[in-house]
Every structure is written in C-alpha cells, then in structure tokens.
Amino acid sequence: MSSIFDASLLAPHIPKTLPDNLKIRPLEKNDFSKGYLELLGQLTSVGNVDQEKFENQFEAMRTSVPCYHIVVIEDINTNKVVGSASLVLEMKFIHEAGSRGRVEDVVVNSEMRRQKLGAILLETLVSLGKSLGVYKLSLECVPELLPFYSKFGFQNDCNFMTQRF
Amino acid sequence: MSSIFDASLLAPHIPKTLPDNLKIRPLEKNDFSKGYLELLGQLTSVGNVDQEKFENQFEAMRTSVPCYHIVVIEDINTNKVVGSASLVLEMKFIHEAGSRGRVEDVVVNSEMRRQKLGAILLETLVSLGKSLGVYKLSLECVPELLPFYSKFGFQNDCNFMTQRF
User: Fold this and answer.
1) Which residue of A41, A77, A133, B99 has the smallest Cβ count within 10 Å?
2) Where is the N-acetyltransferase domain (chains A, B) (predicted)?
3) pTM to 2 decimal places
C-alpha cells in the first residue's frame, strides 16, 4: 500500500474549500520525489534522509498501531507537496484505554501562504481526531501562531515542559 | 513475553537509590492483578477497563514500533505496583528521521510519597530517553510540579495548546 494510512478514513474530513488545483490525501511513499522532505525543511532541520531511510521510516509508521496520520496537500499542476500536517495517536490505559492525539509538523510552502492551507489542514486533522475518538488533542507552536490555532478549538496551556539533547 | 519492553534496556538506567523492598521494571501483563489500574486511578479517570481490555491494549503497546516504555515500581513485600511512568516515542522524518520522546502518566501511590519514587522514575526515564537517542523530551504536569520536573532538565514552555472532547 502506497498510503501511510487509509485514504477512506480521511475523505469525510476534507473541507470543501480546497482550491481545484490542490489535492489533500495521506502521505504516499513516492512523496519523497514530490518535495515532502524539502517542505519539512521549511519547518525545521531534516538533515540527511535519503530515499532508503525515508522509505524505511515510512514503512515503520505505516505499520505502527495506531498508524501515523500524515496528511499532505499536493499541487496537481506541479506535482509538488505544498503542505503537510500529522495527527499522531498515543494509546493509553487511562480514559477507558483511550487514545490521546497530537497535531505535529504543520507546514505550508512559503510560496503558498495566504491561501488558508494551514486552516484546511487543521480543520481536517481536528475532525479526523474527533472521529477517531481521541479524548484530547494538543500541539506545540511558535508564540505568533497561538491565535491561529485557537480558531480550531485549542487553548493555550502553560503546564508543559521540554528539554533538548 | 510478559514485559511491555525489554527489561535489559532499562537496567543501565535504574538509580542505585531505590529502597531494597522496591523493584523497578517494565510493566508486565499480570500487573493488572497487582493494582496497576488502581494506581493510575490516583492520577486521572481510568473507567471500565477489564482484564481482557487491559491485555489487548498491553499487546498493542508491546508490539508497537517504537514500543511503549512503561516503567513500574513494585513493592515486593505487598506485590503491589506503587509507582509508574511512561516514556513514549514518536517517529519523525525531521531531525534525520529521529525520535521525539514524551514522559507520560507519572504517578506514585499516595501512601508511598516522600520516598523520592517520583525522582527515581524521572531519572530513569530521562536516562533511558537519552540512550534511545531522542532529540527532545517533553511532559505535561500540574503547575505545582513544574519545580519538581525542572530538577531533571525540563524547562517550562508555554507554546503549547490543548483541547478536550
């Protein structure tokens, strides 16, 4: 299977406001050649991930339970991935052995800004997360984007800590 | 295999300060009968999770890649689980297809407080996370515990948002 998760899971959650030249779908294995990693490079450091490493990680994510719900927007005129966001689920014993969801790695190509693609990705993932039954969704972002994410039901929560290695 | 992850992975990270009557180890399937869910109930709502549901979730977590590193402290005098904390890894494409780690569901039996069991769990998980090569660790906690977690290298980060369903 070339999709990282079942496309039929995604279909009911795609907003109708997507421009005609764009397609929203699960990440596919051949997105390596459609600029997916270059797009992620606009978000943070990707480093040296060659096609083999990409495909190995893709397979590990695809076969993970629960799988990684990585959604991309492709520009069908250029065959390039121009936006992406991920919904990652964590299994729990708490909350009736429920699932916790996280929105991760939201990025829109800098040349495609002001077309509300970020909003489309967020609407899609929040709706998908609800349908998958997560009891909680969270995300991290730069301070400037706190107002943007609040439009999709998120509230700022300062009881969070990080460390980097 | 009765452990949720390989106990030999954990051994190098266990602090030597653990009292003699206590044992720190990966969660095991028969911890259902050693009070694991009752302990989690001191943290938050667990709800109706019977033995079958527990064992199904345990197997899903154990066979997940990367697996769920759920660590427990057992009191060998009473055969009860008296503390637990989890290190959950998320696979990424960013950071050289690296891993992000999260410390989740830290709880110590209210009758066992002031024995530094929380500190032992945190030292263990931070050390384990580093050894597994995570580029970042994070956690959420109640405001009163921010100073406690700062002892283990965590810094408060307010660029975090949540929503509940």
Assistant:
1) A77
2) 22-165
3) 0.95
